[in-house]
Amino acid sequence: MLNFSFHNPTKIHFGDGQIKMIANEIPTNANVLVIYGGGSIKHNGVYEQVVNALTEHTWCEFSGIEPNPSYDTLMKAQAIIAEKNIDYLLAVGGGSVVDGAKFIAAAALYEGDDSWDILAKQMPVKKALPIGAVLTLPATGSESNGGSVVTRDGNKLPFGSPLVRPQFAVLDPKVTLSLSDRQISNGVVDAFIHIMEQYLTYSVNGKVQDRFAEGLLLTLIEEGPKALLAENKEDLEIRANIMWSATMALNGLIGAGVPQDWSTHMIGHELTGAFGIDHARTLSIILPAVMKVKRNEKHDKLVQFAERVWHLTDQDEAVKVSKAIALTEDFFQRMKVPTRLSEVGLSKDNIEGIVQKLELHGMTQLGENRDITLAVSQQILELAL
Amino acid sequence: MLNFSFHNPTKIHFGDGQIKMIANEIPTNANVLVIYGGGSIKHNGVYEQVVNALTEHTWCEFSGIEPNPSYDTLMKAQAIIAEKNIDYLLAVGGGSVVDGAKFIAAAALYEGDDSWDILAKQMPVKKALPIGAVLTLPATGSESNGGSVVTRDGNKLPFGSPLVRPQFAVLDPKVTLSLSDRQISNGVVDAFIHIMEQYLTYSVNGKVQDRFAEGLLLTLIEEGPKALLAENKEDLEIRANIMWSATMALNGLIGAGVPQDWSTHMIGHELTGAFGIDHARTLSIILPAVMKVKRNEKHDKLVQFAERVWHLTDQDEAVKVSKAIALTEDFFQRMKVPTRLSEVGLSKDNIEGIVQKLELHGMTQLGENRDITLAVSQQILELAL
């Protein structure tokens, strides 16, 4: 196991009816900005629950955060923050809304000339407004970590700071019952791949981390397809297990003390930035190709994955690995997400442009061994056609 | 899954050489009291590392915390705290030292007449000195939770508060290389049973919690016996996996959202209080008897335990459960801890007194269903003879 420091102070309130807890978590003397997306929370009862919980608070709202939140949209919040003396942000939505709130929180107190530098130049965040989150879409884990991704002009750029980690997060699985199949699919697949990026590297004998990762993978494999079945549309237990898995997938725990490989995400970000493909659907396309191209380097972990997650017992390890990759693709197909670039209308002609974007963004040495060069990324993209 | 709130803000610094991190974690203007036990830290290099890390700090020390820390010993620290204006406690040791520091921290700022009431009357802790921990014995999980157990006149009483949860904990597996076999055994078994008390109840379909618990159990079953072998005495990976498992076993995570059954601990506490038997060794005696007496109520979870932890494939569920209980006893025997009262010199004649102590301490409705009455506890003790 590698040395690590782990700190996750986000308080979680989990379960049916927990949105009311925001009343206790946000100081009553705070000036709260409620941040949300396209308004779906007004149709599923979440907005009403938030409003009811904030009767003792002073608050106003900022809506219109889009999927892959854009810098331009987020900067519009700054005027309200100044005008209303906002000193607490409450993000109500999925990962995009929480990510957006994080950038708004950091930009509001940024002392440099241009808050775009937080993303473009990775300028350190020294202060940020406090954030709370009411999660409506289990997927990104953003509700209890310090990471955020913001898009500007087709460039999808990450930043991170412990200062933008939500102080608390409400996870009520009931609010996820109104999600569309596409949102459920994307969420489950996004969480699944977050786990894989922290798991499928080389072994450092981190037994707890490996088993926690495998436990989460098994849970998503079992519960994800179930959540898409018509007869399970009201099943709160399925949604609860998916929701808790997605949070645990990226709260820092399973990645503490083990190598990580975020190449699938980094390549995927370029597909979203350039072509607007749903984040999760870029990942389900790229991951199988990464597994195939790096199967030698990741051999031991692929064998473990095959045995513990897919319960494969073949004698021949190569067969076992091939089957595990095929079963992973099959899982994505059952989750109704694409596994090939051709399924989202991309072809060989698009690869050069994607590789150029990777170069532009400095993504020239990806993977746990920093050996996924631009040439290897190109190979991955070609295999994903 | 049950509704829950989960909050664990303890920062973990894990790995070889991490003790130096205490210099960054404790404010330099603090007056620190370093609290430790019998002085083993002076022989294994830990004391020296702590002293080296605190060169910029003002500190003094209080030693002599015994296993099962006594109220009388802990109260002696109060004079130093007053005299030296202590405002930060650094616990350096195992669970007893950390538990002791927690009571010292709460008693120092207790505003009632008698700080014994924190234990005897469960008076709420409203203020406490901040605590950091350098763990030397993985076992209790006390380094990142808010619980503590203190003994006075043969009575072992718990208290808990988020205010006494350590702000940070250093877990350096290297410092555990100097532990005796008995300390390793006790630590592994204590952690194992912490997991079982949060796992072996009835299912609420908490798939993440169950799989995390099973992952920790599997890790301890694999690594515990290895740690006792002469050829592994310098194996840092084994110690690292045990150390991280023991912390994760009782940091609140695997118990969030699931029923719990602390009957083994409550009955075990009486054995330690009255007869001075090592904590873990009371648990290894009591747990198998609890499994046998409550095997009907715990049937489904015992079957799951048999399948997932012991990989049993028998068709007959009753056979599977019996084998799983026998394998658990076998594991304890391989860890060189007793599984019967007779092995620690107790007989039928002692049971009445133990049951009376349970009654005295209000332990009349134990277990996840509150159905372990005094009569059932007596049955458990008789089966453990």
In short:
2 copies of one chain form a homodimer. The first copy, chain A, is of the alpha/beta class and 385 residues long.
CATH topology of the largest domain in chain A: Dehydroquinate synthase-like, alpha domain
Name the CATH homologous superfamily of the largest domain in chain A: Dehydroquinate synthase-like - alpha domain
Query: Helix/strand-derived class of chain A?
Result: alpha/beta
Residue ranges of chain A: pLDDT <50 for 5 or more in a row? none
Radius of gyration of chain A: 20 Å
Shape of chain A: globular
Number of domains of chain A: 2
What fraction, in percent, of the residue positions of chain A are helical?
A: 40-55%
Description of the molecule:
The structure is a homodimer of 385-residue chains. The two termini of chain A are 36 Å apart. The first copy, chain A, has two domains: 11-174, Rossmann fold; 181-383, Dehydroquinate synthase-like - alpha domain (Dehydroquinate synthase-like, alpha domain, Up-down Bundle). Chain A has 14 helices and eight strands. In chain A, strand 6 and strand 7 (155-160) form a beta hairpin. Chain A has helices at 22-25, 46-53, 71-83, 95-108, 117-120, 181-199, 207-228, 236-249, 263-275, 279-293, 299-308, 317-334, 348-360, 374-383, and strands at residues 4-14, 31-35, 58-62, 88-93, 131-135, 147-152, 155-160, 168-171. In chain A, helix 6 runs antiparallel to helix 7, helix 6 (181-199) packs parallel to helix 10 and helix 10 (279-293) runs antiparallel to helix 12. Helix content of chain A is 46%, strand content 12%. In chain A, strands 1-8-5-4-2-3 form a six-stranded parallel beta sheet, covered by helices on one side. In chain A, strands 6-7 form a two-stranded antiparallel ribbon. The first copy, chain A, is globular. Chain A has 385 residues and is an alpha/beta fold. Chains A and B meet through strand 1, helix 7 and helix 8 of A and strand 1, helix 7 and helix 8 of B.
